[in-house]
Amino acid sequence: MDKQALLALMENNTQTTREKIIKTKKNYKRAPLMPIHLRVMIAVVLGQIACGYALGISGTALSNVAKYINISDLWTGLIGAGSLIGLAGSLLIGRLSDKIGRRKLLMINMYIFAGLTLLHLLTANLLLTFIIRIGIGLMIAVDYTVGNALLTEWLPKGEDSKRQSHLLIYWTIGFILSYIAGTLITGFGAYTWQVILATGAVPAIITALFRSFFPLSASPTWLASKGKVKKANKIISKQMAFA
């Protein structure tokens, strides 16, 4: 076989592979709702509730802290805004998730989230509390940015945008739960505000355990964008029974 014929054959094989990829991707985005979609949705929804709770709980805790320690308006504002400052990290998280994948970040971030939240039980230092809140805000940025991306890439066309528009509802649910919990938690004296802040670990741990017991699959779209087409097709075949 001469060089020209070999090049023609290679080009033909490349084109065939490309067409197969496109066909497979179209199939998986046109599929009806399946268990994999439900698993992704629950994993993302739980994360949104945990994030909403973490943002809301700081307000409830700060309304209690002045009863027990001398705190200035400056520190009250900084601690309250700490999570929002951390959220600015979402500008970098998108790039990071494009490099290492959505699945890896979502599988570990809620454990880090819970660990940071539990640190509130160990310190009443205002500077450390502020730093912890920034770290929690960064984990919220991870969950929101990466969860949105994974939801969009896995869910069928039409369902992705619809379900994405519902995420704010789950943030609101988290907010409401945080204020209910913050109101009910009493009896810890000077540690009450720390305990209130630490309760943010509960929804985070629930989310982390769900994602561990019902692991998320990597996004086929992300894998294909990294040239891992065979792996993407294998995941689609396994999760959605596509040949």
What would you call the quaternary organization? Answer: single chain
Mass-distribution shape: elongated
CATH fold descriptor: Growth Hormone, Chain: A
What structural category arises from helix and sheet content?
mainly alpha
Helical content class: over 70%
**CATH superfamily annotation:** MFS general substrate transporter like domains
> Which regions contain 5 or more consecutive residues with pLDDT less than 50?
5-24
Q: What's the Cα radius of gyration?
A: 22 Å
Estimate the strand proportion: under 5%
Quote the distance from N terminus to C terminus. Answer: 33 Å
CATH architecture: Up-down Bundle
Reading off the top of the CATH hierarchy, the class is best stated as Mainly Alpha
Secondary structure: number of strands: 0
For the largest beta-sheet, the strand count, sense and barrel status come to:
none
Nearest-integer average pLDDT = 80
Protein name: Inner membrane metabolite transport protein YgcS
Membrane topology: Multi-pass membrane protein
GO molecular function: transmembrane transporter activity
Keywords: Membrane, Transmembrane, Transmembrane helix, Transport
